[in-house]
Design a protein that fits this description.
Length: 156
């Protein structure tokens, strides 16, 4: 039946509502292995085109190596760290085992080859270069209408 494919691993219990079925190997074969691991990724585009490439196969009995990365909507994935991206098995089944709360229920996204992410092209021509650099800005309005205008020094 359709529910049999969505059971808690090693159990006859149905998976919690937020857990999506893990993509098949065919659906994740195009993803890049990120050697630092999904947890080190800080941007959506990289997370959603990656799978965990660390040498460890499991952590706390949860699969790590080769798992598709999961983007947690730009916020912390769970209560144990501030990571924005985590390996699928670790994140889906880690609540209550490795961390107390999975924060991204309902708005996470699992990397796969089926749904490539098209990131918007940033149009920054409406922003004004701030000559002293963004780190020198102390006013939120100035910050939101500026780009870093410092000149990059050449090594020549």
């Amino acid at each position: 039946t359709k529910d049999e494919a969505h059971l808690v691993p090693g159990s006859s219990a149905l998976a919690p509502w937020w857990i999506q079925r893990r993509p098949t190997e065919e659906q994740i074969g195009c993803l890049d292995y990120n050697l630092a691991g999904c947890g080190q990724i800080r941007d959506m585009g990289t997370c959603l085109r990656s799978r965990d490439g660390r040498s460890a196969m499991t952590v706390h009995g949860l699969k790590i190596h080769g798992e598709p990365c999961v983007w947690c909507g730009g916020g912390a994935c769970h209560s144990r760290s501030k990571n924005l991206c985590e390996p699928y098995d670790y994140l889906m089944w880690g609540e209550g085992r490795v961390f107390s709360s999975f924060y991204a229920k309902g708005f996470f996204r699992v990397a796969s080859c089926d749904a490539p992410i098209k990131l918007p092209l940033a149009k920054l021509d409406c922003l004004t270069p701030y000559a002293r650099g963004c780190s020198a800005i102390t006013n939120k309005h100035t910050c939101l209408k500026s780009t870093d205008g410092r000149q990059i020094e050449s090594e020549h």
